[in-house]
Records
---
Amino acid sequence: MNDYINNATEKFAELLKKQLERAEKLNQNEDFTDFTALDKIVIGIIPGDGIGPIILREAENILNFLLKDEIKSGKVELKKIEGLTIENRVKQLKSIPDDVMAEIKKCNVLLKGPTTTPSKGDGLPNLESANVTMRRELDLFANVRPVKVPEKGIDWTFFRENTEGSYAVGSQGINVTDDLAVDFCIHTTGGCERIARAAFEFAKNNGKKRVSAVTKANIIKTTDGKFLDICKKVAEDYPGITLDSWYVDIMTANLINEDIRSSFEVFVLPNLYGDIITDEAAQIQGGVGTAGSSNLGKKYAMFEAIHGSAPRMVEEGIAEYANPSSILRAAEMLLRHIGFADKAHLLDEALTICAEKEKKVVVTGNKDGATAKEFAAYVMETIEKL
């Protein structure tokens, strides 16, 4: 037994060393990128796996249309990045191959299609999620997901911590023996503080009066407790905004409780809970195919659909019928982030008209509906009329 414990302890010590080094780096101040000061903004286009290339192609076409003058003048460049596919990642045994990461780091922002993550029992190597790796390597600490359903009074913005929690070292758990497996949850002071402050800054700048922290601090007392304590400390700097605390299990119920859900405004959550809750929220909006997602850091930002690569659709020969709305919403968030709010507004308005009001072209995810290309063409035609 001692040999098992000693072996696991050595692995744990190495993990702790790396996390302590990371925690120290978080204490170094760094300014956010000022996109207005850049001579050129490079947008990386990453197709991904499964339905990714199909839906991303349509988003790229719309970006080319909306940014045609900026691209022509050299102010904006759309840079296609190849190689972030499950086949290439398995071949190189890396969640993001080195040459792909080098190309990614040449960009300022990224628009990324969904990527496939190997799971237990699928016969693929134990590779870390490409998203998890990218968020860590580019320090994309804030996953921001807006959800709006005006007719139900819903206007939510979720700030999910992106680089810590249960996902921080998700592929580095320890099989102590055949009978005992241990995974780890990581929270740092710097990591908790910056996501909490991002949520409160958003609330302050957008006229919101309520931030809801979602944890399981009554049970996961050390890490979730730390997250909640830091949220409370940050809240002291924002006297006009109320912080309330909820456990993740009851919040899953609150989001479908029509009596109270419209009162929520801004949420701040650790990584795992944010992943779960935001998918539920997107389903209320109309499905994960309708919601975009931003992953923000101080130097880089990555925008993506919140759904997966949908291998089932590929296997069934219906990939072209995938709904591109989520990646188009992500493109709208990207435009806003880099300073083109007017163009973002056009895309937002067109998507609202096409998906919620006119509905002349409807995507169902099957052959009884429109293709991604047909829906994107409808959106483009609508933009031209605005």
Note: The chain has two domains: 13-140+297-386, 148-285.
---
Amino acid sequence: MAANGPKTPSTGVRLVRVDPERAGQRIDNFLLGQLKGAPRSLIYRILRTGEVRIDGRRAKPDTRLAGGEEVRIPPVRLEAPTDHGEPPSGPMERVAESIVYEDRALLALNKPSGIATHGGSGISFGVIELLRNLRPDQPLELVHRLDRDTSGLLVIAKKRSALTELQRLIREGLLEKRYLTLLVGALPQKKFSVNQPLLKSTLQGGERMVRVDPQGKASLSHFRLIEGAGAHSYTEVKIDTGRTHQIRVHSAFAGHPVAGDDKYGDKAANRVLKQAGLKRLFLHAASLKFALKDGEQEYVLNAPLPDELKNVLERLDKD
């Protein structure tokens, strides 16, 4: 039997005092920062078994820190970190060119489809790693995530205060997200909503799957038909919650999956759409609206639909 890769020495129990600037951060994300290189599966395992304690109390993965607590981190043994070297110049240039807005607090980019938000699961460099290589002196942190195949607006915080405020806005539903998508088939009505709980699971190979399930988390999506596109529907979606794969699962539940979705979609329809030039998931994060500094500084960020998706709509209209 082949030996496992080298391991780093196991550390003893650590007691870590939470910096006040970490207020609002989830404990699972805090642990990822403390245990560099630890896979999420390990983080969730030590949380699930009760080995992580906050001021002596058992922590759940979604427990949020207030700042000032004492966190007990159990001894863990990690794979020795892999040196991935410098990222290739091509993706770094694509990310640099995709920045659509920047100020002292944050930056926003129009993430290309095909680039992951962050590394992991066989991916060495995602957007955040590429940006950190481009700007090694800046403390950049992801505010939220987009699926690898989804294009559009992705916000990165440049200050801890901006990160915590944006995360609060997301929790309270005060960050307005608008997506553009092509749904398979003709919608029976111009507007409809899907209010169905979503449950996330991880398959043995690490692939994430989401399904409608009464045991899941509350999830609400609002769909509005913009125009017909051949036999399909060009649609705007606004989401009140930001669950993993939410739009993809809710649209499939409604009987009109996202075009080009190879996980939850219509395989026969996808084959036909491929002939119209659709080579990716037709889902784009088009706009974000929110306000920082207790509502004093308003942001309205926009990212135009990529040319490859515009071209698909034009071809469908001609058919």
Note: The longest helix spans residues 160-171.
